Each structure stands twice: as C-alpha cells, then as structure tokens.
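Chains adopt folds. We examine one example:
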Amino acid sequence: MTADGPEAKITAWLASQKEAMLAELAEMVNTDGGSYDKAGVDRTGQQVKRFLDSHGIATEVLPQQKHGDCIRGIVDGGHALGTGNQRSNIVLMGHRDTVFPKGEPERRPFRIENGIATGPGVADMKAGIVMNMFVLAAFRKFGGAPGPLVGLFTGDEEIGSPEGRPVIEAEAKNARVVFNSEPGRASGNVVKARKGGVFSVVDIEGKAAHSGGNFEAGISAIGEAAHKIVAIHALTDLKRGITLNVGLIQGGQSVNTTAPNCQFQIDLRYVEPADRDEIMGKIHDIVARAYVPGTRAVLTVKGEFLPLNPTPASDRVFAVYQKAAADSGLKVEGEFTGGCADSGFTAALGVPTLCAVGPVGGKAHSPEEYLEVESFVPRAQAMARAILRLEQTGL
C-alpha cells in the first residue's frame, strides 16, 4: 500500500467521516420504518438516494407494491452489469426495515452515551446501511474497485423479503461477491453460515357448541391445534440443527363455547437444504391429519429464508476480509448463527457471500438494541480493504 494509493486515501477519508456517519445514522434511526410501514421505509430510501446522489453515484429506485422500494446505487458505471454468464458486480447489501411499531423512534430516539448508540434499528441494520453508503462514496471519490460496485438497499427483510427476494436474486445473477452488512456479532465476528427458515400459519376449523348444554355437538379447533403442536414440536432434531417453534396462537369464541377456529404460527429452522423439504413434508402430513374428527386445517407458508452455507469460494473471501479487518485494527473470526438473513438468497445462487460485516452491535429486536460507535469506521475500512484485495480470492 502506497501513501497515495486508493487504499490509503479511502481508509483515511473513512476515518474522517465518523461524525457524518453518525449524523446519517441518527436521521435514519429517527425515521419510522417497520416492515409494514411502506411510507416510513420509503423515507429512509429517499435518504439513501439523496446521499448517493450528492456523491455523484448513479441510483435507481425499484418500486415495490406493498413494502419499501428497493434502492440501487452503482459505482463505476451504471451500465456495467455482467454479460452472459460473466459475474462482475461486487454487491453491498442491506435492509432498511425494522421490526418496531409505528412511533417507536419518538418513544426511543437515537442517542449516544458512553460510546454506545441506541434507538430502534440502530444495529439491525441501519448502521450497516449507512456504512455501505459511505463505502460506496469512498470508492466513487477515489476509485480503485476491481469491478463495478452495487449498493442494494431493500425494505422488507424482517418479514422474509416477500418483494425484496426477487430483486436480490436478480442482482445475484450478476454478482461476483456479496457483502451483507447485517450487524457484526457482539463478539466482533462476522457470519460465515446461517440457518434457513420457513414461517408458516395453520388455520383450523372446528364447530361451535355450548360447552355445557350441548358439549357433544362441538368440535374443538383448539383441541386439534394442541395435538398438532405437540406433533410439530416433536420434529425438532437438535443434532441436525432442526428446530420447530410455535410462537403464536389464537382461537376460540368464549370460555363456554367449543372453539370453532384456531390459528397458530410455526417457525422452522434448518441447516441443510434437503432438510427443508423433509420437515415441511412432515408438517404437511400433520396438518392434513385430523386428530379431532371433524376438524379441517390449512397450512400457508408466509415467508422463507434460505440457509447460508460456506463454500471454498466464500472461505477465500473470508480469509481476505479477515486480513483486511486485522489491518483495520480488528480481530475477526467467522461464526455460525441460527438467525436468518437475505444473504441466504445470494449464497443459494452460488455467489460467495459474507454476512454480518456491518458495525458491531447486539440485542436486536429489543428495546436494549445497541451499537458500538467506535466500530463504525474500522468496519467500513475493513470492507473497503477487502474489496480492494478481492483479486486475491481468485474470483
């Protein structure tokens, strides 16, 4: 690395941008942005676009019907997509939506105390979004990227990316490598592997009857749900990394009425792609079976994530990133997590993918969510260095 080379210039500029990063983060955290709040998520998209436009970065808005629009920023030629089977783009990815209800930023606005930033979505993953914005700006300013850079900013990851997934998969077809800037783990590590997940709803129909005066005429949907839930939970196989959890249930009419309906929701997590079809097949069988005669049930898949499994190519990307992080003053290892993310969609299409490269934080989805402010700059520098050294991976 020379004193006047791109790496020195980019990392020095990023070091000078800490306060600007925090200002952008404060604005984004203080903007409502739950997954179902399209207007709020779109406002954060407008913030991203405004920033990229101000740095001369070509942008496009990919409108979505129900959820936040996707924003795409391109450095080194907006027309520079892969041609044929060639994969050329280096993709920096992230989601702008959060899990919090409308009004949460007013109740818990962005704040920094003793080097810790708090606020809804501060780590998961608005800090990663801001980091990606500044890394793109640095390469637009100083050049040096070994290929076109694409920043993809989606708006519905927290509910399984029902509209974002096709956009992500289309981008992956032209991707050489993907860095997904979910929050760095509390340990400071990045994520090399994640579980896949399927989120389903079971609706059960029974028959109402007075539970005292006409008990025999009733058919309990809640009783049927109880049998099905026990059977579904029994599919858990911890040795294989397969877990089943019914986390929500509702039903019934009154305490003295046999329940005419019941609904429950299933969270399935798995590691190996083949396990998904096996377990979903067993769930379908359980749902189709009437443990309580006369009940009927329907299973609906509401959302899904694919697993992120390491490959020799992604291992080479991690090795380069690990050295880049060390040169940025960070000690980084790779972790496995049971959580799901959009990175599984790109990995499933054969794109070397590294996840959780964003600033370090923890306790996501809770009022205690936090971000380590001092991780902002070095994590941005680590990503920039890894991009500059991408040729070392042989990809």
